[in-house]
Specification:
2 domains, alpha+beta, homodimer, 6-stranded antiparallel sheet, Chorismate lyase, Arc Repressor Mutant, subunit A, about 25% helix, DNA-binding, 7 helices
Chain lengths: ~240, ~240
Amino acid sequence: MSLISEPTASFSPLYEQIKAMILASLQASEWLPGDAIPSEMELAARYAVSQGTVRKAIDELAAQNLLVRRQGKGTFVATHQEEDFQYRFLRLEPDSGERFHLKNQFLSCECIKSSSHIAKLLKLKPGDAVIHIERVQSSDGKPIVFEEIWLPEGRFQGLSLEALNAWPGPVYAFYESHYATHMVRAEEKIKAVLADESLARHLRVLVGAALLSVERVAFTYGNKPVEVRHARYDTSKQHYDNKLN
Amino acid sequence: MSLISEPTASFSPLYEQIKAMILASLQASEWLPGDAIPSEMELAARYAVSQGTVRKAIDELAAQNLLVRRQGKGTFVATHQEEDFQYRFLRLEPDSGERFHLKNQFLSCECIKSSSHIAKLLKLKPGDAVIHIERVQSSDGKPIVFEEIWLPEGRFQGLSLEALNAWPGPVYAFYESHYATHMVRAEEKIKAVLADESLARHLRVLVGAALLSVERVAFTYGNKPVEVRHARYDTSKQHYDNKLN
DNA sequence: CAGTGGTCTAGACCACTTC
DNA sequence: AAGTGGTCTAGACCACTGC
């Protein structure tokens, strides 16, 4: 391969073009989550560049958590099935510092017409079909999280309450194995709100208690939004933890 | 330079040792925030390694926001004086998506004996002297943020309310120029709380309104904690924004 | 022992900034 | 034109994994 750049386009290094091609393969499901991708030498041969150039491309994709390098074994497509990725997007942790063991209960799973707000976030047309899910997560019997989830019906056809409650692991692992959808990144908007009657009942707190409201949009390859979540956390004995660099 | 590793110690690559030496120079204020560090070739000569090895060391420090690379100009020590770093640790943004113009008012600045909680976070002894600061930040005349700040008195001697209110820029730029203290990273713990009478007065909200409570510990070089903040945000028209990767 | 990723080198050349 | 960081190459060798 050789450097190609349009006369007017700004300079784009070779390794960026390699990155784009690897990304295209991921997006096209040529390699699936958990799979090993070809070795650096193989890719170097395929793209007709040196190993060092492939290396730089893979390094950056690994830094974005799209790939995982394992010395001596190979380079793998990231998956939410792996230990390290299980709670990758969960920032809630007990004030004590221990780890949570959250128990999951899905309450409902219905197909509805999307509101304009949800449609906008999922880049659908208002009124398009979406699946609406409700669940509660508990620690030691005390409900901590009440969560609503919206999914585009097209991508998640046939999703049922029974299937969700039968699944033992994280929801994002469920999406991966049942709907070939891997979540790559997410954006959260956080506010403080007061518990209304419904929330108070679900979380067993008083009406008017302070709750953390977390609205998340999650994206798969190609910056495609495929899930909206609106969670409310009881933060009396736990907190949202964030590191700033 | 050549690879040195203790018989029992685990393998440590050359570029890690270079990183450690650059970090030591930063910590020792050999190069100050805003300064250019020596060129890659100079550093390669100084440490007797190849340019590529220095490169990898600098790359990782730049990824941690300790250094900033500028093609054609050099590599610089990161500073909160720079545009890009001004609001590096501020995650609050208007729901509308615009940018904030926050007006700053410091209310008090007093030297007190630290509580055991603050002492623990700052790694001081309970009762050691700390400076306690209160401030309000407003957008369009409406108070949005009430913030308490605690600083170890040893490092921040002579800090006065007048000096703070006279300073035009971000607080972290003030620390840099007046107390040779550059903040490198921070950790935040977020909860939802109810406004008491005092908070209601400062933020002009009703008693019992929901507020976002953000407790931050900020660190300088060498993972040394040097500031604790406890902020309360009115999130009725703005939110805490977070990206998850 | 072969295969993978990880480190290190030396050298050539490119892109950007400044004089 | 000189100096900086940025890209790319080719090759040697090291560390780790699994057969």
